[in-house]
Input
Amino acid sequence: MELENILKHELFAYDPGANLWFAHAWEEAKPLLGGGRLDSPIQQLKAILLAVGLKRLYAEFYRQLEGGENEIGSLDVFDLMDQLEWSEEAVWFLAGVYSREDAEYEQLLAEGDIHEMLDFMVLNTARRAARLLTESITAEVLFVRFYIAENMEADQEPGLEDPAAYRRYIEEHMAVLNEVDPGKEQAYAWLSDRMPL
Output
């Protein structure tokens, strides 16, 4: 199974709507991986961080909408690393690369806590993904994409993997913006503010 499919299956298999949301967000955020094949440990680690970062954004939307906690981070990365039978070496190597431009990485390297390091890496990656998504997609469209994902059934609308079909589907459901929801205003404000974490 290709890495992208493993990531999608492991992170969102429980929820067909979230799975579809992730598939499109992943394609839109993939430029953060710099292009090329995901065949080196470093590129694969970056892909894992991006996938978990996107899941963190997804969880944060629903935290804004419904309250609760957003605990997506290092444990999710570890689960994927176990699935791929990885060691921690790639994490420390990538952190060393990033430390050349960010002193926070240098401090975390000195502390040597891999959970704190991975939490920071996921957070940074999620922030970069948020900036990329909000540059090209309006807050209204983002809201609808997040909001309807939770209520979608696997066989509800076949063919939505196609970007054009997905865009049409979202356009057809823009009316959800008018639905009364106590948490909607806060979640929409979070999107309008470019999804800060």
Q: What stands out?
A: The mean pLDDT is 89.
